[in-house]
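Hello,

Our lab assistant flagged a job as stuck in the queue for most of the afternoon. It eventually completed. Since we weren't sure the result was trustworthy after the delay, we are filing this so someone can double-check. Below is the sequence as submitted and the structure that was eventually returned. Let us know if re-running is recommended.
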Amino acid sequence: MSRAIHATGTALALALAAGTAADPPPPRSLGRWDALAYGHHRAVVRVEAPADAVVTEIPWRRPDRKPEAKDVVVIDAATGLRIANVARIAITRESGTLAFQPATVPGDYFVYYLPFQMTGRTNYPTVEYPKPVDWSDGTWHARHGLTGAPLSAGRWQSLPRARVVALESSDAFEAFHPMEEIATAEETQALLAKHPGEAFLLFPEDRAHPIRLTSDLPKRWVDRGAGAPLEVEARPGEFASAQAGLFAVDRDLDAVTVETGDVRGHDGRVLVPGSALHSFDTRGVD
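-- returned structure --
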């Protein structure tokens, strides 16, 4: 496992990866709900036709660890009531596959996948993520092959599909997109295949997208590719900042140094000499 150096100016971040979802990614947007009751993140799932059980795959690309140990809450958008019959078929950091019994059809359902509880003082709370709680009826599980050998055999794959129409966050600050939306394992391996033998890859990033992940690649970087050009706009006299994400491919990196060259314009003219550039990570106070 590689280590990461991370700071405000030049951020050095290392990465590992996750999987992929076959369907086109649903749009990410902001929603409004009681985040203290349900957490900051949800998927909006649409059920079109009556069924006793439907299955949905949510490509949430979440940055948190051990999502299988955290609760998932399904709410009927029409009534505000919790759906009791829910089966957690597969929960990973890349995606979550769930079956549930819809009550309102056609209708939308809110799948809250990071509910939390706050205890302690209001000015210094302790946040805990509840463990999964099974509210469902065992006969419903059995009826649809959602337990034991039928589940392992994949009988659930014949269930009607419910479509993910949006991934929402309660506000912009809590949003995973774009800098905490993890790349999948398949996407990361495809990127590495384009750079055989490289010990590390560099990802220039502008100051509007602070590097937050220290053990995963964001999907934004995989889509853009390593070493992509970065343009920084600055006014005369302004101290402009940018970032450089460092991905260690197959080894730990210690005592990383940064060498700066001249910043040149499109015509090759020197705009900023290398001596005027500063790396806060490697030339800071401590």
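-- support follow-up --
The delay was a queue issue, not a problem with the job. The result is valid. Residues 185-193 form the longest helix (9 residues). The helical segments are 35-38, 138-143, 148-152, 185-193, 219-224.
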